[in-house]
Design goal:
This protein is mostly beta strands and 405 residues long. It is 9% helix and 43% strand. It has helices at residues 39-44, 275-291, 296-307; strands spanning 14-19, 25-30, 33-38, 49-54, 63-68, 74-79, 85-90, 95-101, 108-111, 115-119, 124-128, 134-138, 150-151, 159-163, 169-175, 180-188, 192-197, 203-208, 213-218, 224-229, 238-243, 249-254, 258-263, 313-316, 324-331, 334-341, 345-350, 356-357, 359-365, 373-375, 381-383. The strands form 7 sheets. Strands 1-2-3-4-30-31 form a 6-stranded mixed β-sheet. Strand 13 and strand 14 form a beta hairpin. The longest helix has 17 residues, at 275-291. The model is unreliable at 1-11, 269-307 and 384-405 (pLDDT under 50). Belongs to the WD repeat PROPPIN family. This is CBN-ATG-18 protein. Residues 359-405 are annotated as: Disordered.
Length: 405
């Protein structure tokens, strides 16, 4: 198993790793181009195939961001050659549909079937997917050097969430269809480090830069639904949050080797608590209200300790990595946690209904150092280690077709 660190035999050539909107595809951006893996293949197959190509002929090697629209052939690329330019690319026809240039580096891109949202450190651009025309610019947003942003992916909706302040962990919601602000609410005392909508677009998970508490809020009202304590560490860096497709589970990954899984369920009031416990809770609420006027911050901390739940299950990675992304994948009536790491591995863990420490059931090497086979647009398998390009092969030398936007 991987040690989680770069070695001479395992150079870190992966610049970007992530899952698409419905967790059916893992995207890898590397020094030469991109690779897409199906999560179903990761769970079922002993040898992986992938869709991908070398983008050097288009000047798009060293891919920093790769975002694919569900399982379609439409994707966006940010290259290290000029991180201020967004390239909209159709990989089946091998055509760059359009380019959009900005005055600063692109930090985050999100797509759904209606909109493309581009996040810079101090503004957000919204484009119409159908014609790639700019619809709106959100200017002078709070400084967002981490590019914290997400957009709903459910049909007919395009709600965008981003930090509403540089001082507190407030979340601002913006409707990218009607181009109007929706709501702002405070999710954490500290600044935001991660945001993630569920697939229905009616919940959002949040984490601050402290990384110890993860919360779930209703959308668009901003009412707190769940609160979870990630672990005993005082501070960690949360790399990713994700909901299961049915919104019954939430997973988080960080700069530690532990992936946490939380169960999103509300116990009915009084159904599992004895009467004395209910009375005790009411007494505590009364004391809270009485003392909060004198020591509000201390009461808040005590209250959080008494109401925050721990993780339902955990999955252990072989070690901490430079970055990783996690997804909850439903496959054949079974829920899996899938973690893809920047050192070129993807791990799958079966979610046990009883929780606890989850078993690793699959692992694969991914990225340019893997022994995967490439699938050409015609369905033909090609070995990924083909080092000498064939000038007569359109897969190696695609036709140059470029339209600037």
């Amino acid at each position: 198993m991987s040690s989680g660190t770069a070695t001479d035999e395992n150079p870190e050539t992966i610049n970007y790793i992530g899952f698409n909107q419905d967790a059916k595809v893992v995207a890898v951006g590397h020094k030469e181009g991109y690779m897409f893996y199906k999560t179903a293949d990761i769970l079922e197959n002993s040898t992986l195939t992938y869709e991908g190509e070398n983008l050097g002929s288009l000047g798009l090697n060293n891919c920093l961001i790769i975002e694919r629209l569900f399982s379609s052939a439409l994707m966006v690329v940010i290259s290290q050659k000029d991180p201020r330019v967004l390239h909209v690319y159709h990989f089946t026809s091998r055509n760059i549909i359009c380019d959009h240039r900005f005055n600063k580096s692109v930090l985050t891109v999100r797509l759904n079937r209606e909109r493309i949202v581009v996040c810079l450190e101090d503004c957000i651009f919204i484009y119409n997917l159908k014609d790639m025309k700019m619809m709106h610019t959100i200017m002078d947003t709070p400084m967002n050097k981490l590019g914290v942003l997400d957009m709903t992916s459910n049909a007919g909706n395009a709600l965008v969430a981003y930090p509403g302040s540089t001082d507190t962990g407030s979340v601002h919601l913006f409707d990218a269809i009607n181009l109007s602000s929706v709501n702002t609410f405070v999710a954490h005392e500290g600044t935001l480090a991660c945001l993630k909508f569920n697939q229905d677009g009616n919940m959002i998970a949040t984490a601050s830069t402290k990384g110890t508490v993860i919360r779930v809020y209703s959308v668009p009202t901003g009412n707190r639904l769940f609160e979870f304590r990630r672990g005993v560490s005082r501070c960690v860096t949360i790399y990713s949050l994700c909901f299961s497709s049915d919104s019954k589970y939430l997973a988080s990954s960080s700069n530690t080797e532990t992936v946490h899984v939380f169960k999103l369920e509300k116990t009915e009031e009084g159904s599992s608590k004895p009467e004395a416990a209910t009375e005790g809770a009411g007494w505590f609420d009364t004391i809270n209200k009485t003392i909060s006027a004198y020591m509000p911050s201390q009461v808040m901390q005590v209250s959080e300790l008494m109401t925050t739940e721990r993780s339902f299950a955990t999955a252990k990675l072989p070690g901490a990595t430079r970055s990783n992304q996690v997804a909850l994948v439903a496959h054949k009536n079974q829920q899996y946690v899938m973690a893809a790491t920047s050192d070129g591995y993807v791990y799958a863990y079966r979610v046990d209904p009883e929780g606890g420490e989850l078993d690793n059931v699959k692992q694969h090497r991914i990225g340019p150092q893997s022994e995967s086979c490439r699938i050409s647009p015609t369905g033909e398998k090609k070995e990924s280690n083909q080092s000498v390009p064939n000038m007569d092969d359109p897969d190696d030398f695609p036709p140059m077709s470029h339209t600037s936007g």
